[in-house]
Amino acid sequence: MCGRYASTSTRGDLLAAYDAVETVGEELPPSYNIAPTQRVNVVLERAPREEPDAEPVRMVSSQVKWGLVPFWAKDPKIGSRMINARSETITQKPAFKAAAARRRCVLPADGYYEWMTGEDGKKIPFFLHADAPISMAGLYELWPNPELPEDHPDRWLWTCTVLTRPATDAAGHIHERSPVILPATFVDPWLDPELNDRDDVDALLNSIPEPRLEPYEVSTAVNSPRNNNPDLLRPVDS
């Protein structure tokens, strides 16, 4: 699964890395301990809000909360239970199938945290990373607040979820599932708005190669989302 992650790239870094041309919302500061329900950076392709009939453009948005709220949900609190979505079932599950076909995104990250149970039963945190920032596959949704008028600027709540898959390689020794990580050549197909057939989405997911991540143990300070500083990424043996 993915319950916490770090993302320290600047907005300029993200615009360059993903060939994005537009930004939405204020720039978020670097975060070393992103937790569910917080606002996160996502990369997506969508027509500008002011021109809904225009061609989609690639943008970096910071106005998205982590924890997907389906458009049909009665209570947005459901999002806290939907921070992850199993990639094997997103095209069938009612909560995800609409977004799987039309609202896919990328969550940029330096890496993510996972906890392994030690011999004494205590949870040991690890940071899993690659040689460069990673692109986690995600879905996003827009939830209309029924208590606000249609023209209210806060009527639409933007939320997202991180896709997961069975874990292999080093990650599999720590937890049985890991985020779906997109190699650079898969980012464009994943964000492509013209990919709207759910069978084709499944085929794309099934073609994504297994990631090669390196884990190292980190301080239990990461257990609290109140802690957020560069020391969280420091290996415990250093």
TrEMBL record:
One of its GO terms (biological process) is proteolysis. Transmembrane segments: none annotated. Signal peptide: none annotated. Residues 220-230 have a biased composition (Polar residues). The keyword Transferase does not apply. InterPro entries: SRAP (IPR003738), SRAP-like (IPR036590). The keyword DNA damage applies. Residues 215-238 are annotated as: Disordered. Keywords: Covalent protein-DNA linkage, DNA damage, DNA-binding, Hydrolase, Lyase, Protease. GO terms for molecular function: lyase activity; peptidase activity; single-stranded DNA binding. Its EC number is 3.4.-.-. Belongs to the SOS response-associated peptidase family. This is Abasic site processing protein. It comes from Rhodococcus gordoniae. The lineage of its organism: Bacteria, Bacillati, Actinomycetota, Actinomycetes, Mycobacteriales.
